[in-house]
UniProtKB/TrEMBL annotation:
It comes from Dethiosulfatibacter aminovorans DSM 17477. Belongs to the DegT/DnrJ/EryC1 family. The keyword 4Fe-4S does not apply. PANTHER family: DTDP-4-AMINO-4,6-DIDEOXYGALACTOSE TRANSAMINASE, TRANSAMINASE. Signal peptide: none annotated. This is dTDP-4-amino-4,6-dideoxygalactose transaminase. Keywords: Pyridoxal phosphate. GO terms for biological process: polysaccharide biosynthetic process. SUPFAM superfamilies: PLP-dependent transferases. The modification N6-(pyridoxal phosphate)lysine is found at K182. The active site is at K182.
Amino acid sequence: MKIPFNRPLSLGNEIEYMKKAVDNGKLSGDGEFTMECNLMLERMSGAKKALLTTSCTHALEMAALLLDIKEGDEVIAPSFSFVSTVNAFVLRGARIVFVDIRPDTMNIDENLIEGAITERTKAIVPVHYGGVACEMDRIMDIAERHGISVVEDAAQGIMAAYRGRALGSIGHLGAYSFHDTKNYTMGEGGALLVNDKGYIDRAEIIREKGTNRKEFLRGTVDKYTWVDIGSSYLPSELNAAHLLPQLMDAKKVNENRLQTWSRYHEGLKDLEKEGLMELPLVPGHCSHNAHLFYIKCKNMEERTRLMDFLKDRGIASVFHYIPLHSSVAGMRYGRFHGRDTHTTRESERLLRLPMYYGMTKEENEKVIGEVCRFYG
Ligand SMILES: *Cc1c(COP(=O)(O)O)cnc(C)c1O
């Protein structure tokens, strides 16, 4: 039995929807399927506006444009994240101020954010790792008191919530990813969530190459013209048509993933009790989406041995981010605020186990069994 790390979500009916998109005779953006996805996302998240994009990276770039990030501005983000979290702002000239994470959730430590704020700080970008929420009440309070914006990198956060509020819908702006490795996929794609109404019109313009095409199509202006900076951030209808049926069945997918996650947790909790390794923590006020299941080994050496052990038994497991502040670009475009107590140490011992929709009980139990064997 070979167990891959991920299987891109496929429910089987995507092709029917994609065929309809082809039959519609319009594959370019903002047709029927994109509009349906936007509405679904607004309904699921409660965001004032959801706009499907070509990627989460591009949704974050749109956020940086909307916030008018300029040369010399500072943006606060965790170092334990994907490059796009910060690249979007570096592209506008910002310097990144990396803040340490909490070892329990691997999310930015909300208690360290305020100390990292300077007169140049324009935004905080919390990343909800594995669909487990950052401490958003605290983060929003800090942002409000200092007059700075919050962009949630909710790439992994769709269908997850913080105190009952959907991730991505709490900050001024939020971004989802629909990459093949995420819970719902359109191949490459994402969405920008606009929660502050003041950004909606400009978001539509930036997404449409800096034109007022959207207003023109609505009939609210009589000329279609260049009105602002922008780029092409709207995906093809084919991609939207792949995503739509998955969003329609989002609950089923989420429940299935959560079941796999719970089986892992149940099956491995004795190892944690014996102090052999650690399991992920989901605070009581957060509901997650089982985006990933990780364990924490004693150290990097043990993790490498476990990875090899699993690989020899046909099981793919992978580690995650190399901290951004220690990368070539991270050193050039950012600085670490305060001490790196947890970021490097925790990232070196984190190992992600196979997780995908439709993982069978046998596959699930095989992985659990082999991890137990390694430690036993
Ligand atoms: C996947 C991911 C992204 C990038 O998403 P794309 O849709 O591939 O651009 C950004 N941030 C985080 C935290 C991610 O996990």
